[in-house]
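Morning, I've got a small favour to ask if you have a moment. It would help a lot if you went through both lines with me. I owe you a coffee for this, so here goes:
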Amino acid sequence: MNKTELIDAIAKETKLSKKDAGAVLGAFTDVVSKELKKKGKVQLVGFGTFETAKRAARTGKNPQTGASIKIPAATVPKFKAGKALKDVVNNKH
């Protein structure tokens, strides 16, 4: 499902216009992004948690040449699924 399809599904589920559903989705992604930028987290009970994690610097290899390259440390976003979401995915609802 791409963003347009997601907006269509949200509009249908909520009976909002596609424009309003797009605005809601945009606001959601903006708020989550801003919170993660501040190193915060967004927890949706039953669905999951958006947060950041620190990834240490490491040495990797260029797959084309095999040459070693240094990969710098970084802060990366991550999502941990909640129990209710895991249960739905595994047909345990």
The beta strands are 42-44, 48-55, 58-61, 68-71, 74-81. Residues 1 and 28 are 17 Å apart (CA to CA).
